[in-house]
Structure formats: C-alpha cells, structure tokens
Amino acid sequence: MHLKGLFKKENQPVRHQNQAEAPNVPDGLYTKCESCHEMILTEDFTQNAYVCPKCGHYMKIGAYERIKMVFDAQTFEEWDEEFTGGNPCHFKGYEEKLGDLQRDTGLNEAVITGKGKIDGMEAAVGVCDTRFLMGSMGYVVGEKLTRAIERATVEKLPLIIFTCSGGARMQEGIISLMQMAKTSGAVKRHSDAGGLYISVMTDPTTGGVTASFASLGDIILAEPKVLIGFAGRRVIQDTIRQRLPDDFQSAEFQEKCGFVDMIVERGMMRKRISNILKLHGFPKEAYRR
Length: 289
Known about the structure:
The chain is α/β, with parallel strands linked by helices. The protein is built from nine helices and nine strands.
C-alpha cells in the first residue's frame, strides 16, 4: 500500500464533468471598486453615474462619458477635434508617449471642447480627462480651452468647464505655464462681455489648473470628496511647519473656506447646472449690451 502523498494538499483546478458546465463570465460584466474592492455589475455602476453602490466611491470617468451624462442626447458638437501639438522642448520620449496615449484612450489630447444643450439650453463646454497624462495642461489643452472660451464669448454662450488635472505638463516646461495666463485672460474677456462661467471641479484638480481657469468660475461646483489644491499636502506642511487639518484640500474643506460654492453629487450635476442656467436667464439673452 502506497501512503506517499496521501495527506498532501494540492492546489488542483476544479474539474467539471462536462466542459460546457464551466463558468463563463463575459469580459466587462463586472467592475471592481477602487475603494471597497467589491465586484459590482458594470451596468449597476453605469446606471449609478459611476458611483459605487456599496461604498459611494466616485470612479473616474472619461470626458465623453461626462458629456453624455450632462448634455442632451445627440446635441454635442465637438470643436478642434483633430488639434494636436508637438514636442516644443524636445523632451526625450514625449512624442512616443503621446502616440501611445492617443492609441490607448482614443483621445488626441487631455481635454474635449465643444457645445451642446442641457434641457434645451445651449452651452459651451470643456471637459478634462485624466486618462491622458493625468489631464495635465500643455500647449494643446490651453489652446483648445482658450479657443472654446473665445468662441463662447463670440456666440454669447454660457461656459462650463469640468476640471481634473495634475497641473501643468512638465514635458513642455515654460510653455505649459504660459497656458495659465492665456486661459485666465480668455475667461476675463468672457466675463467682461457679460458671460456666465460655471467651473466644476472633479477629482483631482491641482497645480496650475487650480491656479488658473479652474478657480475663476462665477460659480464653482465640486463633486464630493474631490482633491482640490495647488501644492501637495506634505510640501505645504514642510514649508509652514504646521499640521494641516485631516480634510485639508478636500471639496468639503474648500466649501467651508468659501473657495467652493456648492458640492453636487454626480447624479444631480445635470439638474443643478440646468437650474443655474435658468436662474441666469437662459435660454434668453443673458449678456449685457
């Protein structure tokens, strides 16, 4: 009698009597929550505005998904879709990195601009996308946003920008920093013409984007628990040598300090923006003569 291996536990694959009985889970059927790590039906995530129904965690979403959630169906018209930039500072590997991201994301750059309708009210929009170099702002992002703001001014449209960014794009050096002044100047001219600008901060909104167009809205909204700031928490603590509040740079902290006007749940964003537009006289003529 052979006793070798009688009590040895081996990790063997589960065998099914019939191969047809093996479980077959289609790709994309479930999505794993980044926070609670629960496996959620992707359809449930989508219907809940990409917010985990278990723990309430806000998943990052792409620019086109954001537009689909906020604007009326089949009303969005994209501007400067094919606009791309180069490698102004001759940063090694930058062009290859951009090409890889364009193939992987289907985006030409980190922002989508255009116009569409919200409950029948036309508005210009810019939506940043963190999938493309963390939504960092280089020449193309700054130029596309500036063109959109200027076109909104000419066409007398309210302006809505959804921000999410790691800040200025280091691969473009001083050219990326110049976009802060360029976008801010365009916002000022839009304001001088009597235009309404709604800034919507999503996670994260940091660096040069926070220090420019993201903070210049007539009304600033934010999704819950969004990270909003300029320099990092550790950098600030080491500089001022003081312990910062636990909720420092959160949307809730910024609302308490008056930097953010209102925190809006993602599922309510379309309705809230629609109400703001109506309160400001849209779709009627709302510009000063």
